[in-house]
Amino acid sequence: MTTPLLTTPLLIRALQGETLDRPPVWFMRQAGRYLPEYRALRSQAPDFIAFCLNPEMAAEATLQPMRRFGFDAAIIFADILLIPRALGQDVWFEAGEGPRLGRMPEPDQMRPLAASAGEHLSAVGGSLSRVRAALEPERALIGFCGAPWTVATYMLDGEARTIGKGERTQARTYAYADPRRVEATLEVLVEASAHYLKMQADAGAQVLKIFESWAEGLPDDLFETLVLRPHQALVRRVRELGVTAPLIGFPRGSAALAERYAQEVAVDAVALDTACPLEVGRRVQAIKPIQGALDPLLLRAGGEALDRRVDQLMEAWGQGPWIFNLGHGILPDVPIAHVERVLTRIGAQ
Fold first, then answer.
1. pLDDT of 91-146, one tens digit each?
2. Of these residues, 42, 111, 300, 341, which one is catalytic?
3. 79 given a catalytic annotation
4. pLDDT at 1 over 50
5. HEC states along the chain?
6. What pLDDT shows up at residue 7?
7. CA-based, 20 to 30 A from 97: which of 26, 154, 347, 349?
8. pTM of the full predicted structure?
9. What's the total number of domains in the chain?
10. Is 42 a known active-site residue?
11. What is the model's pLDDT at position 6?
12. Out of 130, 132, 139, 154, which one is annotated catalytic?
């Protein structure tokens, strides 16, 4: 039985290729520190990972921006670095410092754990089920994973935290110096991520997103081996597992290579980052639906410059299919009034 059009979420309709009266809208990191209700909730958890793996708390964090702003989609509150934990690598978060990882196990040690990643992270499924039960039928629920290369950069970087800190240069050095080990790691991550996404779809996620946060600065050959091939394999494996939910790929920082990504990876839509030229976005949009790409810093700044850029995006990509979003995650110090201003500008509030 198909969902009646009136209750089919706008996000799903855009991913199916429809051009709508207005673009559906949600923001990356829309649940987070810029909301006072989130800060109050987060203070009740002993640490960040415990917060992510508490279904009641994670579901509440996911729903908070939906209550305040009425976005067209909720994205489950979790973290891309839950997968390394499922594969046996130590992961922790230090206040004011961000994630820290211990030494990465060898691929042969991680491989037997890959198929059970979804089971290991079933708490995220519990969060999804709670959110889906609370959301109105016209609002979509998004699950996600980190892309294999992005997750691998953190896992590999855990072996040499003092080299290339914050730039992932050590991980890229490994890609040149020890390509077989990196390839084996990516293969494990493809399998683990596929099972993780399968679990999320079974728990109620209607859309799945692959976050490739570290596609930036890769030459053509590395982009092919580290981004294109693993994404192709991940999409293929997800479909083999019976998942039919639409997939959004986000090759952040890929610039003109985003067009090649759209052509060669069987995702249903491509999310574009802040630096993507409007014309490149148009070319990608001619291939499949797009998402993006307002600058989070402009959302922080607000004012007439924010209005102008929203109007530019609407003019350039509003013929659709297009999902309005940021080019990266919302910043912790963004004024709530600026979010409301954007939603009013595009007719979503």
1. 999 877 788 999 999 999 999 999 999 999 999 999 999 999 999 999 999 999 99
2. 42
3. yes
4. no
5. CCCCHHHCCHHHHHHCCCCCCCCCECCCCCCCCCCHHHHHHHCCCCCHHHHHCCHHHHHHHHHHHHHHHCCCEEECCCCCCHHHHHCCCCEEEECCCEEEECCCCCHHHHHHHHHHHHHHCHHHHHHHHHHHHHCCCCCEEEEEEECHHHHHHHHHHCCCCCCCCCCCHHHHHHHHHCHHHHHHHHHHHHHHHHHHHHHHHHHCCCEEEEEECCCCCCCHHHHHHHHHHHHHHHHHHHHHCCCCCCEEEEECCCCCHHHHHHHHCCCCEEECCCCCCHHHHHHHHCCCCEEEEECHHHHHHCHHHHHHHHHHHHHHHCCCCEEEEECCCCCCCCCHHHHHHHHHHCCCC
6. 84
7. 26
8. 0.95
9. 1
10. yes
11. 60
12. 154
66-86 pLDDT tens trace: 999 999 999 999 999 999 999
**Is 154 one of the catalytic residues?**
yes
Q: Is 13 a catalytic residue?
A: no
pLDDT tens-digit map of 32-57: 999 999 999 999 998 999 999 999 99
Does the annotation count 345 as an active-site position?
Answer: no
In the structure encoding, which two tokens stand for residue 162, read together? 């003092």
Query: Which domain CATH number covers 190?
Result: 3.20.20.210
Catalytic residue among 29, 139, 252, 309: 29
> Per this entry, what is the length of the chain?
349
Among residues 13, 72, 79, 252, the one annotated as catalytic is 79
Q: Looking at 33, 100, 260, 300, which residue is catalytic?
A: 33
What's the domain range around 157? 5-345
For residue 181, give every residue at least 6 positions away whose Cβ sits within 8 Å of its Cβ, in sequence order, or none. 107, 174
Amino acid at 116: S
